[in-house]
Specification:
heterodimer, A: mainly alpha, two-stranded antiparallel sheet, elongated, B: about 300 residues, alpha+beta, six-stranded mixed β-sheet, 9 helices
């Protein structure tokens, strides 16, 4: 039976955002594993060394951060497919995953600004998508009909 | 009003009350959702604002002072590593090795094979590389005037404790060495204050060997760059500076006496690799160093 408690626009928006996030995450993951890790600085002193190499913040607990992002969006796509909205038990899981995603975004933004000192544009796209998913889900839960 | 009308009126009032209650509940939930989203945006926005305002005032760098003379403790640890320690560490923990090249004109100075290092004091990868290079070269000669410094505190692997070749001289019967630190770690404008100016010959080495086909075009000109007598080239660090993070220079020097410590494995492992390359340049001299087990093992790897 189709879920009619969550607004249709929210279901469509979260799925679209999750798919977009998955696409960018795939790119970042491929880029992480194919880019040569160069332990060198550019000769010109005005450019950040972290921009040409793998930052120390690019992995957590030995796992590339890109893989965490990929896993997150694979899960979000699965949780926002039409069949998933029919199971009321997944509502908490969906919102909880978005909260975890946002917490991770806050950590990564802090790492970019204060650790690496450089902003990765594709990473920023993922962060924006994650916050947008959280916002849509938060309002969707608020608007749900009992 | 009839009884039916009164019942209908009461039912409508109850329905209206229920509708108002649901609306109020929905408004509360919307406010909660808005507050949650706003909190996230405020936190992220706050991080950006803090960074922008802190960046405008200049980096909060406690280590913008130029390199200081090397302390006795660090110098002693760098130049007096026991021979047995090098063999105990063996290959150590090294990510990148010098690359052998052939068919190039001999690089010499004063009739001896010349080793050229080009880096900068702000550079965290140069910070890592200098330790192993200084230890290796100390097996073939003597440094005077080495400095101690830290890499940039606003870059990757901030404030990595290291040595500096700026102002240092090297004497050896086997090798000549030129260490060029092009920039300090002191901010100047958008970059760093200049230090040593490479000679025309050193610039030519960079243009020739720190460029395709020896390195990829997107990495051309990167530092640290090392040329061992035009027999071995290396761009970048032998290991990640992460292993040195948070450790003062004196602590790093102290860890060179523990062959199982990651710091010793990285620094002495890379020193063994450099020693193997230097031995190729010196024709296997001095013999007791160039025939040691660790150096022999690395010579096989350099040409494997």
């Amino acid at each position: 039976m189709a879920d009619r408690s969550t607004p249709a626009w929210a279901r469509t928006a979260t799925l679209a955002l999750s798919v977009a996030g998955l696409a960018v995450s795939v790119y970042l993951t491929v880029d992480h594993f194919t880019t040569r890790s160069v332990l060198a600085c550019p000769a010109t002193a005005s450019v950040n060394c972290a921009k040409v190499t793998t930052s120390a913040y690019a992995s957590m607990l030995g796992i590339p951060v890109a893989l965490y992002g990929l896993a997150f969006f694979v899960a979000m796509v699965a949780l926002t497919l039409p069949y998933a909205w029919r199971d009321p038990r997944l509502r908490t899981v969906r919102l909880g995953a978005a909260v975890v995603g946002v917490a991770f975004v806050v950590y990564l933004v802090g790492a970019e600004l204060f650790g690496v000192g450089a902003i990765c544009l594709w990473c920023t796209a993922v962060h924006v998508i994650t916050v947008a998913i959280f916002a849509v889900l938060a309002f969707a839960v608020a608007l749900e009909r009992p | 009003m009839s009884k039916a009308a009164r019942l209908e009126h009461r039912r409508q009032r109850q329905a209206e009350a229920l509708r108002k209650a649901r609306l109020a509940q929905q408004r509360r939930r919307m406010a909660l959702a808005a507050a949650a989203v706003a909190t996230v945006l405020v936190i992220i926005g706050g991080l950006v604002i803090v960074k922008l305002t802190a960046g405008g005032a200049g980096p909060a760098v406690a280590d913008t002072a130029p390199a200081s003379p090397i302390s006795d403790g660090v110098l002693d640890a760098v130049k007096n590593v026991p021979a047995a320690m090098f063999d105990q560490v063996g290959l150590g923990a090294v990510d990148t090795l010098p690359k052998a090249i052939s068919g190039q004109p001999a690089l010499t100075a004063d009739g001896k094979p010349l080793v050229v290092y080009i880096g900068a004091e702000y550079c965290p990868y140069c910070a890592a590389q200098r330790w192993g290079l200084a230890v290796a070269l100390s097996r073939f000669g003597t440094f005077t005037g080495l400095g101690e410094t830290k890499s940039s505190t606003i870059d990757a692997f901030p404030g990595t404790a290291t040595l500096s070749f700026h102002g240092a001289t090297y004497t050896s019967q086997y090798l000549a060495f030129q260490g060029v630190e092009t920039f300090s770690n002191v901010r100047q404008g958008d970059g760093y204050a200049p230090l040593d100016t490479p000679t025309d010959a050193q610039n030519q080495l960079m243009k020739t060997y720190n460029a395709p086909p020896y390195v990829s075009s997107d990495a051309a000109g990167g530092i640290p760059f090392l040329d061992i007598a035009n027999k071995y080239l290396m761009q970048g660090a032998s290991y990640s500076p992460e292993v040195l993070q948070g450790k003062p220079g004196i602590d790093i020097a102290g860890l060179l006496s523990n062959p199982d410590d990651p710091v010793a494995k990285a620094i002495l492992g890379s020193a063994n690799a450099f020693t193997a390359a230097l031995c190729q340049a010196t024709g296997g001299q001095p013999g007791e160093i160039c025939t040691s087990s660790a150096v022999t093992a690395y010579q096989a790897k350099l040409h494997g």
